[in-house]
Amino acid sequence: MLPFLKNIVKRAPGPLVRGATFLYRLTPPSFRYGRGFKKALALLQQSEHWDTGELEQYQQRRLESLLNHCYSNVPYYRKVFDERGLKPGDIQVPDDLKKLPFLTKEIVRKNKKDLLATNFSFWSREAAHTSGSTGSPLNFFVDNATMSMNRALALRHLAWVGYKEGDPVAVFKEPLSGRHGRFKDYDPVTRELRLTLTRSDDTELEHIFEALETFKPTFISAWPSSLYILARWIDRHKPLKHRPKFLITSSENLYPHVREQIESTFRCQLSDWYGQEESVAIAMQCSHSGKYHVQMELGILELMPREDGYDEIVGTCLHNFAMPFIRYKSGDLAVKGGESCTCGRKHPTIDGIIGREADLIVTPERKLVSPLGMNYAFYYLNEIKEGQIIQHDLNTLLVKIIPWEKLSEDTIATLRNQLTEHVKSSSMEFVFECVDEIPRLKSGKRPFVISNLRSQDFD
């Protein structure tokens, strides 16, 4: 669908949105997504069998085209090159990108107009934005080539875990478009059941459980937090009869104990996908190991060491010529990879995704603490359904808790001790609040950690 028509339909009344969506899905993907999608699929079919050298050559060709385009058509990058006395030809290989500065969210906000390519019209780009879970949403633009590559890579991920055209898929993610208050929607054209978790009360969880048992999906694609809550509800209430072939998670940090719970309840393997709305780097797991394969066809991924010992993901999208992002600091943290995957694919790997920089807790002693251990502290406390940690200042953490039924003093004491042990700060105070609901973001996500600190608060 053309970007401007898509934006118009999004603002239409619910019945019109549902009708337009149904007609849209009746069209074949080649028409629905255009020639760019067909071209991206063809590329991925070829590159699936490339060796490391061929993947690197592809990146170099794309990078050369991108840099020449930026110098000729993107005012921001023309200025960056000129200020450094550089020409596009001075950057021949991905490692040469170090000659250019990082791009940050703040730079994008301040230079949004100058980052737009002058040879792209308004009608040939589509507005996009981040969820704003770490502060104000970032608004930007993408072009059809980027969207096409993202869709093609999503199909590659499904194919890597055994998907065949026509397999029933349940998608368990964002609120349903044009379906306010509804938790499910079935698309008979694509054989896709769309589910959303808004309140996470027993009634809603039971309805979602029954919908999955009736639909019997071969694959479930979901946010980890939604599957985790459902898995714990299932273990407490009803045995799961239908066993999916594979689970796919994305868009949120997948903690090891959360993966363990989900795979145990659904009795099948889980494959995670890493990416961002900005589409500067994508990495995904196959069915052979827990390593994340960096998708070199989409972009160039750099891991930049930080003083705290973590590595930040910096990405360069090789397809978004409408608003290029070069050396974009994602704020996401990862664990470097080493050995190649046993599947034999030649994409480089990273061993794990830690989460976002904004997920880190800052202690009064100015030390950064990973949310992993804090999330794990909730894991074996059977009275707790959901939890969230909010940091308003350096000295206090607000801990919101949704209990399954009631919350005992023993559980609060245990949680306090475990959180204190993990934070390792005698000055940090914990304030516990028992709530009926933890509000989700507009996107439908519910982050485990929300930090309201500014960087100057702990410099």
Automatic annotation (TrEMBL):
GO terms for molecular function: ligase activity. Gene3D superfamilies: N-terminal domain of ligase-like. The keyword Ligase applies. Residues 129-284 form the AMP-dependent synthetase/ligase domain. Keywords: Ligase. InterPro entries: AMP-dep_synth/lig_dom (IPR000873), ANL_N_sf (IPR042099), CapK_Type1_Caps_Biosynth (IPR053158). It comes from the Bacteria. SUPFAM superfamilies: Acetyl-CoA synthetase-like. PANTHER family: CAPSULAR POLYSACCHARIDE BIOSYNTHESIS PROTEIN. This is Phenylacetate--CoA ligase family protein. It comes from Desulfomonile tiedjei.
